[in-house]
Amino acid sequence: MSQKTTLRQFLKANEANLPAPLSELDHLLHSIARTAKTVHAHVTRAAITDLYGTAGSSNIQGEEQQKLDVLANTLFVTTFRESNLVCVVGSEEEEEIILMDNNDAEYVVAMDPLDGSSNIDVNVSIGTIFSVFKRKSEKGTKPKVEDVLQKGTEQLIGGYVLYGTATAFVFTTGNGVHIFTYDPKGGEFLLTHTNLEIVKDSKTYSCNEGGFLGFTEGVKKYIDFCKEEGDYKARYIGSLVADFHRNMLKGGIFIYPSTQKTPKGKLRLLYECNPLAFIAEQAGGKAYDGRVRIMEIEPESLHQRTTYYVGSANMVDKALELIETHE
Ligand code: AHG
Ligand code: MN
Ligand code: MN
Ligand code: MN
User: Is this complex scored with an ipTM above 0.95?
Assistant: First the structure.
């Protein structure tokens, strides 16, 4: 087996292509990786340590928080506070921005600490999704929500962790998409894929068709198109990170459209759609809301939702074409 590259070695070798000082990005990414290892450990032992089930609280999304939602949120917020590099965090699990008590820190994080919560108790892959930005407000001042409400095009880092059969740490800093796989034996994340590219065409579509009757005409036409082709596969795990990761590696389109229950879509722009859009585009894929490029959307609120079409470029184009023709 060839000697694998560590995260530190990779960042050092690619220092010239980093969007911020190596020492800071190294510290930030290792902080995230270290916390991902802790979440990995909790996720794998959750049934034994009674960490399945609900925490007895709800979040701003109107969702019942799972114990692991709350734990992952606490772990990552603590990590960002202790990193001394982050001034403010926006999290799915907290209504308002979370100040890191360090107004001199330059970085901002938007995160979904645990994605796919409905799958925690049934031993199906879940994840963490995050974006890193430079603050907009003056260094030394109290950070503001505008520091988090930044367009996807402003991201320095877009990344996710997939707690699956293996724990994978996937991110882009704007120079390609790279996958580091956790080696429990050595305790390190090791480089297992560089400059990932998503194929332009594939035959896998990923959509919760339970909402089909409430889909708009164009989306119905696209789903029918996939079925009429006869050789498409429908794959839907119900954890965005897992569905997205499969499509990144094998090609495919993930769709969360407008439904009767979620007319503006279900997924959150800032800490689900933007980071994955950055990764998709860096791998040669596309991410749209059905009309506009996800990363161009000007955020108005922390938890705003959007419709989402992401994955293989030609498949997204086909969906957009049918939406444009029929809506
Ligand atoms: P989260 O667990 O962070 O709230 O996100 C859940 C999301 C996403 O992971 C997944 O793609 C989607 O919800 C599934 O929604 P449906 O169950 O409505 O298909
Ligand atoms: Mn949730
Ligand atoms: Mn999520
Ligand atoms: Mn979540």
Answer: yes
Tokens of 81: 């506070």
Please name the fold of domain 204-326.
D-Maltodextrin-Binding Protein; domain 2 (3.40.190)
Q: Is 104 exposed, middle or buried (0-12, 13-18, 19+ CB in 10 A)?
A: exposed
Domain boundaries, the chain: 7-193, 204-326
The stretch 188-206 carries a mean pLDDT of 98
Probe residue for ligand 1, chosen from 69, 208, 215 as the CB with the greatest number of ligand atoms within 8 Å: 208
Ligand 1 centroid to residue 231 C-alpha, Å: 27
Residue at token pair 């090609």: 251
Q: Which atom of ligand 1 is nearest to the CA of 210?
A: 19
Q: Does residue 1 register a pLDDT over 90?
A: no
For residues 62 and 15, give the distance between their C-alpha atoms in angstroms, rounded to a whole number. 42
Q: Where does 7-193 sit in CATH, by number?
A: 3.30.540.10
Cβ proximity of 181 and 189 under 8 Å: yes
CA of 115, closest atom in ligand 1: 3
* Residue 204 burial by Cβ neighbours in a 10 Å radius (0-12, 13-18, 19+): buried
Ligand 1, residues at Cβ distance < 6 Å: 63, 92, 112, 115-118, 208, 238-240, 266
CA distances from 197 to 50, 85, 177, 180, 278 (A): 39, 31, 8, 15, 13
What per-residue confidence (pLDDT) applies to 2?
A: 79
pTM over 0.80: yes
- Cα of 145 from ligand 4 centre, angstroms: 20
Ligand 1, residues 209, 256, 260, 261: which to mutate, most atoms within 8 A of Cβ? 256
